[in-house]
Design goal:
Layout: E1 3-4, H1 11-14, E2 19-20, E3 24-29, H2 35-50, E4 54-58, H3 64-71, E5 86-90, H4 92-98, H5 103-114, E6 118-122, H6 124-128, H7 133-150, E7 153-159, H8 163-168, E8 177-185, E9 190-199, E10 208-214, E11 217-221, E12 239-240, H9 247-250, E13 255-256, E14 260-265, H10 271-284, E15 289-293, H11 298-306, H12 312-317, E16 321-325, H13 333-347, E17 351-355, H14 357-363, H15 367-383, E18 387-393, E19 414-423, E20 426-436, E21 445-451, E22 454-460, E23 470-472
Parallel strand pairs: 3-7, 3-8, 4-5, 4-6, 6-7, 14-18, 14-19, 15-16, 15-17, 17-18
Antiparallel strand pairs: 1-2, 8-9, 9-10, 10-11, 12-13, 19-20, 20-21, 21-22, 22-23
Length: 481
């Protein structure tokens, strides 16, 4: 099926290439959801692609002068194209003087005059609401005949509260596709979403997709679909060293490439440092890394790395490490994964560190969506051969009660546990490799400390256990029990 690209960020991805050619699309939503902005964004984008005329008709709803005043604030608005190739026409006055029944003829004449590649009617609902059901169906039928005759792409805009309402309307019967916009009010801000309810003759990405309105127009973040991709899960013989003395020995060489690792532990156990060491070790080997930081700013991460001799800023300047800093309170999961995918593709990322999934979990009200997203994210990175490390905050300060909340630990190929122990008024850190799918590893629980060169795995002396004395592991006594 031939398609027309909308040029709207993320929308063509959701529509698997764009609108079907010569189709009628109904854009629905409550007032203030972004219908007119989305429509105008599409009109000006298609005008630039096709270099053909676009016809935008206003009816008996919002005055055209107000629409123009508002649309000029966006970067997609092309003043050179306005009224030259993107033609605005108010048919509201003709509707009032000649009657609603003349709408098909009015539109027919305008199409014949301008021969546009696309026509938009804003709003179709404002017209239909003035008619009886019988009159509305007659008008819709006649309008459909005209549009079919001209083989023209059409956008119909209407104010509908929810998707169930729009699908009961007579105007929905002529629509080849229905796109519904809506929002949810949360404690601190409103979130906007787009859902494709119908697209005749072609497939599309179902479900709700995060939408934002910016100075550039509409930004859409297609949801990450939690469906198993066709991929071959093979035991990888390549290992990625963490750069931490003793830990790579416990891992029998390092973390297997292309796998998902969860680093779980209570606050202060060194989880972030372990992740930073792994990312920096990869940069040393010319493996590009991405840090998704939800708890610390890039400046703070750079400063922390410097204190252990890791020149994070140098790696960033060389393009070997990228940092994506997002507020866990303001973020949306679909936006996060979309931006991550773009950065992964553009920078050929090999290692991804998310610090932390606990912050993501706190910032997401829908916990089912959170677990679905983690599963899908792990599956996506694995299918790309990218190593993923997830930092998780364990609720218990001393000891271990659970690995992760909401039982998301099942997505991990590898699990490294960090925990604390009190002894003689002092706190000690411990580390254990709990799981490595398809790979051998040390089962021992070891102690470790943080030096000025970063975390270092230590060895506990069994006979002096009550005093919790420790000796540092070196290359000569690693693995000696």
């Amino acid at each position: 099926m031939d398609k027309i690209k909308t040029g709207v960020s993320g929308l063509d991805q959701i529509l698997y290439g764009g609108f079907p050619k010569n189709s009628t699309i109904l854009i629905s939503g409550a007032p203030g959801t972004g219908k007119t902005i989305l429509t105008q964004n599409i009109l000006f984008n298609i005008n630039k692609q096709k270099e053909s005329k676009i016809l935008y008709l206003t009816t008996v709803s919002e005055p055209q002068i107000k629409i123009l005043k508002n649309q000029q604030q966006f970067s997609y608005f092309d003043s050179n194209a306005f009224m030259d190739s993107v033609i605005f026409h108010d048919i509201g006055s003709k509707i009032i003087s000649e009657g609603i029944g003349e709408i098909p003829e009015i539109i027919d004449k305008l199409i014949e005059q301008h021969r546009p590649v696309l026509i938009a009617i804003d709003s179709i609902k404002a017209i239909i609401d003035l008619l009886s059901e019988q009159e509305a169906r007659k008008l819709i039928y006649e309008l459909n005949v005209k549009l079919t005759f001209w083989e023209i792409n059409t956008l119909l805009i209407g104010e509908y509260i929810d998707g169930d309402e729009v699908q009961r309307r007579p105007e929905a019967s002529i629509a080849d596709g229905i796109i519904h916009l809506y929002g949810t009010e949360e404690r601190k801000h409103q979130k906007r979403y787009l859902r494709v309810l119908k697209m005749r003759g072609t497939d599309f990405l179902t479900g709700e997709h995060c939408m934002k309105i910016s100075g550039d127009g509409i930004l859409l973040y297609p949801r990450l679909n939690p469906v198993v991709k066709k991929q071959t899960y093979e035991i990888n013989s390549t290992y990625q060293p963490t750069g931490i003395s003793g830990l790579d020995e416990m891992l029998h060489g390092g973390i297997p490439s292309g796998t998902t690792t969860i680093i779980s532990g209570s606050t202060g156990t060194g989880k972030t440092l372990l992740g930073l060491s792994w990312i920096c070790r990869g940069a040393e080997a010319n493996e590009t890394g991405l840090i998704i930081a939800l708890e610390e700013s890039p400046e703070l991460l750079i400063k922390s790395a410097e204190s252990f001799g890791w020149d994070l800023l140098k790696y960033m300047n060389y393009g070997l490490i990228k940092i994506l800093h997002i507020s866990s309170i303001e973020m949306d999961l679909d936006e996060l994964v979309y931006n991550t995918q773009m950065m992964v593709e553009e920078n050929k990322i090999k290692r991804v560190l998310i610090n932390s999934i606990s912050s993501i979990e706190v910032g997401v009200a829908d916990k089912i969506k959170y677990t679905d997203w983690l599963w899908a994210a792990a599956d996506f990175f694995k299918s790309q051969g990218i190593s993923l490390m997830l930092v998780n905050e364990s609720p218990n300060l001393f000891g271990v009660s659970q690995i992760t909340k909401h039982t998301v630990s099942y997505i991990a190929d590898n699990i490294i546990m960090l925990f604390l122990k009190r002894s003689n008024y002092q706190i000690y850190k411990f580390i254990n490799v709990l799981k490595m799918r398809g790979h051998s590893h040390s089962d021992s629980i070891r102690s470790f400390t943080v030096t000025n060169k970063g975390p270092v795995v230590l060895k506990r002396i069994p006979e002096n256990e009550n005093n919790a004395s420790f000796i540092e592991i070196d290359n000569n006594n690693i693995g000696v029990e």
